[in-house]
Amino acid sequence: MTADIQQKPDGKRSSLRSRLAWGLVLIGVGVLIIFFFGFNSLPGQQATFGLNLAHSQAIPVPDLILPVQTSIYVLALVMVFAGAYQLARGIRSIHEETSISELFI
After folding, report:
1. What are the pLDDT digits (tens) for 48-70?
2. 52-57 long-range CB contacts below 8 Å, 24 or more apart?
3. Nearest CA to 51 among 66, 32, 39, 36?
4. Domain residue ranges in the chain
5. For the stretch 68-82, what's the b/e string if a residue is b when 16 or more beta carbons lie within 10 angstroms of its beta carbon?
6. Is 100 helix (H, G, I), strand (E, B) or coil?
7. Could you tell me if 103 and 79 are in contact, meaning their C-beta atoms sit under 8 angstroms apart?
8. What is the pLDDT of residues 64-93, one digit of tens each?
9. How far apart are CA 31 and CA 84, in angstroms?
10. How far apart are CA 37 and CA 15, in angstroms?
11. Whole-angstrom distance, CA of residue 58 vs CA of residue 60
12. CB 33 within 8 A of CB 79
């Protein structure tokens, strides 16, 4: 039981199981992104993000145009990398769950 508990400098205890669970969840989400979105997208597809409000007097900004397939693979790789890092080292933060959940946003 004591082998899977690590003592943090601030006195809080971090569970190895929790670190492994978050790492596997992140890797699983990255793989699901590839399966659900990566294989269903066609080469050459583009996503256009309109960055201007409809009736705004602000400075006009050109639309952001991204290749769909490349963007999906990059996002999936970021998730898999974050999961692998979590498995190997753990994300050291005061609010570990918050920092991990920010990856989903």
Report:
1. 998 888 888 888 889 999 999 99
2. none
3. 66
4. 25-37+64-105
5. bbebbbebbeebbeb
6. helix
7. yes
8. 999 999 999 999 999 999 999 888 877 665
9. 12
10. 33
11. 6
12. yes
